[in-house]
Specification:
The structure is a single chain. This protein is of the alpha/beta class. Helix content is 29%, strand content 24%. The N and C termini lie far apart (59 Å). It binds ligand LLP. The site of ligand LLP has 20 residues, from helix 10 and helix 11.
Length: 421
């Protein structure tokens, strides 16, 4: 059996991940649990590759450097490696994960404003493809580290563009901590050229995440291409940011996105790199959770789940809305509810005023589109163990991260000897 177009579909009355019955899965694995469908990830990769293949000649196909931060599970990274993807990493930890998963070093790009000396040294030692630098201070550091071979570097442009997404996931506007203005980059490239083992080969840009319009991309790409022409930079890394449908967002056509790359960036570049994160994994995951209590409150009933903001931070952090669907369809009358987690914070709310068939404690719900920035941002807040993660791939269904135990959670804590007795 193959998975449906969105990978999570009702078979009879029960929601399935591909062929896997989510009620049965919750029974055997417990909740809360992230469940991913590998087929969806492959579909998204081929949709993006297909759009670029149709728009650009073979020698201009972008390297897809998966932005690991979206979902860093080792099995997901292996899946990316098997599809030939590279990785965009933002820490030494992500770099090690990508290498361990078999992503070749020459497909790894290192982004981020705060690489430490140890992280930069590790990137040089591992001979990764390129380091995207974000400040003059970072260039000074690289000069001091004397790379033993011509190290490719790219400079991240701050294109001063409003990406039109949530403020906390916007990065391309002037004054943000990300990237540098064009004139500063020109000067730094000249400086870098004076050092024989620094190869100021490229430019990068990333203006924000969950973008639903191509307009800000267009402006940012034009500024990137102009700077490439002015500086002779030949590798253009155009970041990630493509939005997905969480509710009813109207998204740009991939064909038009690839068209912008063809029309604006390709003529100015010899080599292109993209850093998609959410687009590849967001729709491929759900968070499976059980209703712990149905709390009768003055305004309307509140469903209290066994998943909280520590498991999925997006609603609390960015007011993000994820669809929430009962795993079993019923004919119960519709009811208006709020849906909250158990964490002791007012922000631990997943939905307000949602209509759903009258739920009962013990019922299972699926929080949809939780494959990106879900598990990778989970924490132990309120001393809640990290959730389990499961990967469904056609007829295979595997635990790819065990549920954390209480002992796992405290194993690195040390009680000073004088307190022990
Ligand atoms: N490249 C760079 C340099 C980035 O900083 C990011 C994301 C990406 C690529 C991938 O962006 P994507 O294609 O996934 O939009 N936690 C937030 C999203 C933060 C994104 C941070 N940077 C959320 O849950 O919405």
């Amino acid at each position: 059996m193959t998975s449906g177009p969105d990978g999570f579909e009702f078979i009879g009355n029960v929601l399935h991940a591909g062929p896997v019955n989510l009620e049965a899965l919750a029974e055997s694995c417990g909740t809360p649990t992230y469940v991913y469908n590998a087929g969806v990830i492959r579909q998204r990769i081929s949709a993006l590759q297909g759009a670029f293949a149709a728009a650009l000649p073979p020698d201009k196909q972008p390297l897809l450097a998966y932005a690991c931060k979206a979902n860093t599970n080792g099995a997901i990274l292996r899946l990316m490696a098997a599809q030939g993807l590279g990785a965009d990493v933002v820490s030494g930890g992500e770099m090690m994960r990508a290498l361990k998963a078999g992503i070749p070093a020459d497909k790894i790009v290192f982004s981020g404003v705060g690489k430490t000396e140890e992280e930069t040294t590790a990137a040089i030692q591992n001979e990764i493809r390129q380091i995207n630098i974000e400040s003059a201070a970072e260039l000074d550091r690289l000069i001091d580290l004397h790379p033993p071979y011509p190290l490719k570097i790219a400079f991240r442009l701050n294109p001063d563009v409003e990406p039109g997404t949530h403020a906390k996931i916007s990065t391309g506007q002037g004054g943000s901590k990300f990237g540098m203005p064009a004139d500063e980059i020109s000067n730094l490239m000249d400086r870098a050229r004076r050092h024989k083992n620094l190869l100021p080969a490229g430019l990068s840009v990333h203006i924000g995440s969950q973008l639903t319009s191509l307009d800000p991309y267009e402006t940012a790409f034009r500024r990137l291409a102009d700077l490439a022409r002015a500086t002779g930079a030949k590798t253009l890394d155009f970041g990630g940011g493509l939005g997905i449908v969480y509710r009813d967002e109207k998204l740009p056509d991939l064909k038009d996105y690839a068209g912008l790359v063809r029309d604006i960036l390709a003529p100015a570049a010899m080599e292109l790199i993209a850093e998609p994160g959410r687009f590849l994994v967001g729709a491929a995951g759900i968070l499976l959770t059980r209703i712990t209590h149905l709390k009768i409150a003055p305004d309307r009933p509140i469903l209290i789940l066994d998943a909280g903001m520590n498991d999925l931070m997006r609603p609390a952090l960015y007011d993000a809305v994820h669809r929430i669907v009962p795993v079993r369809t019923t004919t119960a009358p519709q009811m208006l509810v709020d849906i909250a987690g158990p964490v002791c914070e007012s922000s631990d709310i997943f939905a307000r005023r949602q209509t759903m068939p009258a739920p009962a404690p013990g019922d299972l719900l699926a929080i949809m589109d939780a494959g990106a920035y879900g598990a990778s941002m989970a924490s132990n807040y309120n001393s809640r163990p990290l959730p389990a993660e499961i990967l469904v791939d056609s007829d295979k269904c595997d635990v790819i991260r065990k549920r954390q135990t209480f002992d796992d959670m405290i194993k690195d804590e040390i009680i000073p000897e004088w307190m022990a007795e």
